[in-house]
Amino acid sequence: MAKKPIRVAVTGAAGNIGYALLFRIASGAMLGPDQPVILQLLEIPVEGPQKALKGVAMELEDCAFPLLQDMVLTGDAEVAFKDVNWALLVGSKPRGPGMERADLLKDNGRIFIAQGQAIDKVAADDARVAVVGNPCNTNVMIAAAQARRLPADRFTAMVRLDENRGRAQLAKKAGVSINDVSDLFIYGNHSPTMFADFTHAKIGGKDAASVIGDQAWLENEYLPTVGKRGAAIIEARGLSSAASAANALIDHVHDLVTPGKIHSVAVKSEGRYGFNPDVWAGMPVKTTATGFEVIESYEMDAFAKSKIALTNDELVGERETIKDLLA
Ligand code: NAD
Ligand code: LMR
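Above: the input record for the complex with nicotinamide-adenine-dinucleotide. Below: its predicted structure, written as tokens.
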């Protein structure tokens, strides 16, 4: 018997990430090759974006995806989130050259108040929320604060792009296939302070640091390359990453619905790994049949602890900046 469709809301659906994302959701890459979906697409309620959204929907129709059961196009958050099982919060302003993601806090933060309230009011009881719009760790906190009907662990933010970047850089340096790199997890903020934990990563099943054999490169080149990759892409493309971000969101959700997967997700820390309990921080999680559990067993050395303290301080600072948006 055919499965019941899953309702997926995507905000900012006519934007750059939206354009790289929707077709893959509709093809089954995110929720599975036999899982029908209904796409509920939100754009700002003004003529240009609404018209562009119609164009994207026409293209989705023209793909004749067997799994795409229906589409809702709207400028109203309560229509977009009505009965949704997944809400992918992408819509917001990207940074330009020379900006940090935190510079977007005040502009983007407010979007997540209204969207959190709408999710609280109309989303399905099993709804899960993944935030991509930057600064994503803090925006997810704002949305969760407005949607108390749902437990905090339904709200995640995306650090999977950083994990993918981190694995790719290790594979490149070691001259091995990406498939040989494992156990690389991202701790903390989706910002240059993030800690891509090479101390527990493996290459071909062996300790990555020994395989690389160059601690100075790991500490002084690898970490900044991964942490500042978004800025490097903006500098090169004149636009922020879109296809790789959409791909990472597909991975993020796919792995959150695939029991046994171990991957990096920004979750409410609850004090794990020494983070402030109230911030959303990247850390390794293992997907279970009903949700996920955080893997808490990694022992951090002094270097790792100092990096985690730094990214925690930044997250606490962001929370302080937007504290009036949490009421
Ligand atoms: P974009 O400007 O191309 O598209 C954003 C879209 O969102 C636009 O179409 C805009 O009209 C829409 N939008 C703005 N406010 C909205 C609202 N309140 N409701 C609904 N739609 C709204 O930007 P993009 O390249 O798609 O990036 C989107 C966001 O994702 C940015 O904040 C960017 O920094 C972030 N991002 C995050 C990651 C990550 O790893 N977490 C990676 C890449 C980009
Ligand atoms: C990225 O990491 O590519 C995105 O967060 C976009 C940005 O502002 O860096």
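Notes for the reader.
The chain is about 40% helix and 20% strand.
The chain has a mean pLDDT of 97.
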